[in-house]
Amino acid sequence: MLLWFWKxxxxxxxxxxxxxxxxxxxxxxxxxxxxxxxxxxxxxxxxMAVGTQATVKAMTTDMVKRAGSQIVLGNTYHLYLRPGEDIxxxxxxxxxxxxxxxxxxxxxGGFQVxxxxxxxxxxxxxxxxxxxxxxxxxxITPEKSMQIQQDLGSDIAMAFDVCSAxxxxxxxxxxAMERTHxxxxxxxxxxxxxxxxxxxxxxxxxxxxxxxxxxxxVDGMDLPGNAxxxxxxxxxxxxxxxxxDETVPFLSEKKPRYLMGVGTPDCLVEGVVxxxxxxxxxxxxxxxxxxxxxxxVGKVTVRNSxxxxxxTPLDPKCDCEVCKNYTRAYLRHLVNVNEILACxxxxxxxxxxxxxxxxxxxxxxxxxxxxxLRDEIDELYA
Length: 382
Fold this sequence. Notes:
The protein is an alpha/beta fold. It is built from 15 helices and 16 strands. Helix 10 packs parallel to helix 14 and helix 13 packs across helix 14.
């Protein structure tokens, strides 16, 4: 057993955060670990369901738990605009506000303001932007992002960063990376909440030298975890994998590694093979709203007419409550008459499927068959 720890003590109390690597793959960079937080343990590798506006879309928190989720994400940008971090703080924090008693990670808002395009202006101070809701003007700085996330009370907060598009030129990427580094210093200086872990974010676009430089800088800040940002932003998957190969070796083995915004089945397994521990993505619930499911036989889009008289389970290889109780024909009917229940059921299945996939990944690491599992999933989804 390999025991590596990052610990944060508060006035001699029990450890608030602790990361432990229990087992490493013999033929890949994958590992099995556990991240302990004030709201419970997270077994890694893990997929984190995204609760953008203090809810995983179309699911109650009880459903999210039954689907096997250990941790969910909240979106700093959206929660700042509605209902406001002051209201959530008054409610007792995000955990109480959304009735979720397990760990929560909040992003910094960096990617969301990056996505606003012409509605935002980046300066050294921060990002000035127009709300996508009503056009009102706002400014988020590294300090403001930390203040919001501390008010939200998440277990893990992300540093405020600058993301660059996949096709950005070298100077643009370099400038964004260097600003991300300066902002990380400001985030660490401002962040004071001892029951909340701060993760830094690696940038550097699609340039391997910048990726390595950023990974060394972020890891050198000695924070409790390291994240990899600026991937899955339009680049081909082989390019993303190449950038992971250039980044992960420069991130400490003693801390969890989090690949942001990545969650398709093939990318999850490919990321684990390269040494990533944590992932998040909205795609599980997004495709569910269009009637598409991840299954053991590949993607199934039940909206299609061929499922009209298909009275078999959504996924014949799945034991979730949806697959036990509902047929493809029924789910197709719900989708095509725009019933909310369709979103609920298929979202549940997709998150359950993804969490079960991560369980299979852990077993494959233990028995040395991770590369075989990768080939199986790639054949279905790559």
